[in-house]
Design goal:
Layout (H helix, E strand, L loop, with lengths): L1 H20 L10 H5 L2 H4 L6 H14 L3 E4 L11 H8 L2 E4 L7 H19 L14 H4 L1
Parallel strand pairs: 1-2
Helix pairs in contact: 4-6
Amino acid sequence: MEQIKKMKRALLIGLFIIQTLFVFGQAKVLTDDDYNKSGAIKLTFVTTKTEAIELAKNDIEKGTPFILLQSGIAPVVYATDSIFESKFKVYYYEQGCVGPNNELMKEYNYVIFNYLSETYGKKWRREIRKDAIGLRQWK
């Protein structure tokens, strides 16, 4: 009888350990420094598409690529945003109602979209927010 209890206990411990393999880890939390040094912030100060492309490439190299969004006065956040960010290691950045030149934001996002395609194939396309700047034109 004692041996059965030990086996049940060992089985439960084994199940708990296996379960932890399937639980999502905590996503990286960006700091103010990450935002302030990002290309998404610096995009306001560039004037050419080449500069916008370089900013996106630099963000990818630093491990903090952003997908630029633009809504209105109040930012829109969906419950699935953090899941997408965690799964694809990219972060949404809301520009608000006033942002950089729209063409420059598209160029920045095109680089990020290409990166996502190269890294994750097509599966990211089903989960990305459909209001990402330039997504429709990129396809």
